[in-house]
Amino acid sequence: MSSDISNAEKLGANPFKMKIPDYVRAVMDVLSHNGFEVYAVGGCVRDSLLLKEPHDFDLTTSANPQQMKEAFCGFSVIETGISHGTLTVRSGGQNVEVTTFRTDGKYTDHRRPDSVSFTTSLKEDLSRRDFTVNALAYNDERGLVDLFGGQDDLEKRIVRCVGEPDRRFEEDALRILRALRFSAKLGFSIEQKTAQSMIKKRELLKSISAERVLSELSGILCGKGQTVTKLLLQFRDVFATVLPELSPCFDFDQKNPYHSYDVYTHIAYTVGFTNPRRETRFAALLHDVGKPSTFFTDEKGVGHFFGHPKVSADMAKTALKRLKADNRLCKSVDTLVFYHDNDISEKKASVKKMLIKTGEQEFFALCDLKKADRLAHSEGHRDISDIEAVERTAREILKENECLSKAQLKVSGRDLIALGQKPGKRIGEILDEIFESAVNGRVENDRESLLNLAKSIIERDRR
Ligand code: ATP
Ligand code: MG
């Protein structure tokens, strides 16, 4: 009797019954009616046990790729992953990924196995998976199949490697970041041996592509705030491997009464205090990286960092380019980091000036970052009521529908042409002038007033 079976028997009394949607069940039924074993596996089982709605369902089966193709001949299928044993089956308008039980061959690039081979043993398939909480399988017949203590770790809220951590991270270094991502997302801690190995093997992350690093890093940063802060502190050397800009901040004493934390600890807290939005979290992580290089002490021995927002913004740009970040992320981080230390008074004119510079969405993200930054100051310097007042003013300005961007102007280039202006670069200049007037309240942002102003500018040009 194989150990899989005895374990299943042990779990026979387990009352766990997983909710499997009909479109997934239809795919499972095809395989089981053809005499193959088939299980829901990985994230969907983990999330179901945590009473969370799985976002997708992956299946694993004893059918080899050829047998899968035959079994699903009446279905629409996508064969992109077939050499690795994965077939995507369309069912009920959704995609279900079905993968043959697999063992991975040798890993020479610390990322992907050189080859994979198919097996008929579920146990072998589960043992290649990264963490115990992801090595869970389920079908109605056998119930939960948990061969590596995944359910126990879910209860203890721990991320733990399946097997020997050093070997598992050497095979695929991306797992170091995956461990951090699952920990951050689930609010779990990382088992000690797994954690030690992640730090020990961190240099292997250098063989992971920038795109993968960025995507995992985004997932980590968008996790639960408190956990993200803890992870940033505990695994600072891992983070610095992918973002070397962070290391000069480690233990950097700010010598300033506003700061009881060193620069890096302050950063770690700031990240955790922001809302879990990718752009804001990256900005929080990088907002003060320019501090070490701009540091000086005044005659009283107090530390200052003049010009650090611009230096941080430049460093952030370099870091994000290296990680091949998209424009949206780069632009947002640049705005947030650059302005994070600007004083905004709650007066309308001051708020409006910043709203125009940043746009509405980034403005509120900036306030979020400023509040988080403040909360990570020393005790007695954490009051955020001034920033909340700024947010209130901004909401009032927006409610009054004041003109804050050229796009909001109630006239366009086309209107200028209708008024007799020749197409060309002068159109943009006239719109700039009209915008200036609208922002400063010299003209109302209604069509008639703006058209009148446009007419007078065009006439002035002709004189
Ligand atoms: P989620 O999709 O919610 O982030 P998930 O657990 O479904 O979580 P996926 O990346 O979709 O994660 O992977 C599906 C499953 O495949 C995992 O649960 C795990 O069992 C296995 N897996 C994925 N990537 C790896 C890897 N790099 N090494 C080992 N096993 C992996
Ligand atoms: Mg998944």
Task: Note down, in words, how this protein is organized.
With 463 residues, this protein is an alpha+beta fold. It contains 23 helices and 13 strands. β3 and β4 form a beta hairpin. α8 runs antiparallel to α11 and α16 runs antiparallel to α17. It is globular and about 85 Å long. It starts with a helix and ends with a helix. The N terminus is likely disordered. It binds adenosine-5'-triphosphate and magnesium ion.
Give short descriptive properties of this protein.
463 residues; 51% helix; binds magnesium ion; alpha+beta; 13 strands; disordered N terminus; globular; two-stranded antiparallel ribbon; binds adenosine-5'-triphosphate; 23 helices
Structure in a nutshell:
This protein is 51% helix and 10% strand.
Describe the protein's topology:
Blueprint (H helix, E strand, L loop, with lengths): L2 H8 L11 H12 L4 E4 L1 H7 L8 E4 L3 H7 L5 E2 L7 E6 L2 E7 L1 E3 L11 E3 L3 H6 L8 E4 L3 E4 L3 H7 L1 E2 L5 H7 L2 H13 L2 E2 L1 H9 L9 H12 L3 H10 L1 H7 L20 H11 L4 H9 L4 H4 L1 E2 L5 E2 L3 H15 L4 H13 L8 H11 L1 H16 L9 H15 L13 H6 L6 H15 L7 H16 L1
Parallel strand pairs: 2-5, 10-11
Antiparallel strand pairs: 1-2, 1-8, 3-4, 4-5, 6-7, 8-9, 12-13
The structure holds adenosine-5'-triphosphate and magnesium ion.
The site of magnesium ion (MG) has 2 residues, from loops.
